[in-house]
Amino acid sequence: MGIQLTALHYVYLAFIVFIMALLIKRRDTTMICIAGIFVLGWLATETVSGSVTGVFNSFVYATKELMGTIMIISIIVAMSRVLTSTGINETMVAPLTRFLRTPFMAFWGIGLIMMVTSWFFWPSPAVALIGVVLLPVAIRVGLPALGAAIAMNLFGHGIALSSDYIIQGAPKLTADAAGLPVSSVMEASIPLVIVMGVVTTVTAYWMMRRDQKNGTWRDGLISGKNAGNALAAESDAVEGQAVIAPTLKKWLAIIIPILFLADVAGMFLLDLQGGDATALVGGTAVFILVVVTLLAHRNKGLEQVTSYLIDGLTFGFKVFGPVIPIAAFFYLGDSAFAELFGKVLPAASQGIVNDLGVALAHNVPLNGAVGAVTATITGAITGLDGSGFSGISLAGSIGKLFAVATHSDAATLTALGQVSAIWVGGGTLIPWALIPAAAICGVSPFELARRNVKPVLIGLIVTTIVAMFLV
């Protein structure tokens, strides 16, 4: 039996459709998200006070969930500002200019490096590591900052995270839910990941070049800055000239990448993943910031460390300001709802988003083609909470359900749901999920999401059609 849907489910779904429509129309969704939280709170508590306090508490919840990402972005930006003001950044990227000489090479070069790096320790730390080094090179050869963000985002949070062949977090979750060996789900996902990756990235690159030629390209820069690289933007908060001797500058340009490579090695040796891996990168960036600032500013170094940190934090919270209300609404689709408003959903409920996915699976005709379409749609719906991972267990169980009912390949349907959920929620369409790439490149996360919508939807359609022949 399916989950009994309530008014809360239908209202949440209606707001999701409205929000998605506004995003496609390039309109701001903050007010609508606040209204959605208020209405859901009213339905859950049946009191004005409960719905009003629910709005504030949902903001607090979202901020807690996003704080790790806010901090890593802020610290990386602070570190990069001192590297830029001292010229170390310029020295670091000089050797790479011989490889990334055109926008084409920069787009695909950044993307492939991001994909490989993300396979080993997931995309958010990878964005922080390679953004500092490769973004200035890409901009110098003519690739827009938004184009670099698209490459990092699609290859990292899309291809690498949806396949997850090294860390294997995603395939393990879906395989366990479907009662399948992890290896079978990974093997089944290979053609789907290839099709999705190729179609999406080629489409995104073609659309970018087309819009540039037609003069309709929008850079999406934060605050309308001319410098596409937020990491290289001049800091208004830091006073005083940062000077480092040329020889020392060269040594630091060598040592800093080695430190980050040591982080990569540490992730392997210590088996660090996700938040722990991000924390290692963030802590390294803090020490680099402190040491370089003290060397560059000498007797004013103590004060300038604080100034750089304030500058980075100001940037981080400025970027996340419009994202928190939207994240607050979508987090209500998962465990946040019960935490904020109590257990008002049906007893068998697994959260609003997962309930909608289960209801869909129980109300469509059962055959292989419909099973593939349903697996894709269900994965996409569960990805709307922005984590990408919260609903992939549901994708696995639904894949098994359709496979048993239609005698289809359970591993392929499970892998398809996994790919769909992570491409939508893991960081290519939901604005706050793709914050790392957007913030590192100094572009609007909403503009990045808009640029990704058509390529990702086209990719999902083509991948679903391919899956129909594989099941």
UniProtKB/TrEMBL annotation:
UniProt key word Cytoplasm: no
Protein keywords: Membrane, Transmembrane, Transmembrane helix
Residues making up the signal peptide according to the UniProt record: none
Domain of life: Bacteria
Transmembrane segments: 6-24, 31-60, 66-83, 104-121, 127-143, 188-208, 251-270, 276-296, 308-332, 421-441, 453-470
Name by which UniProt lists this protein: Transporter
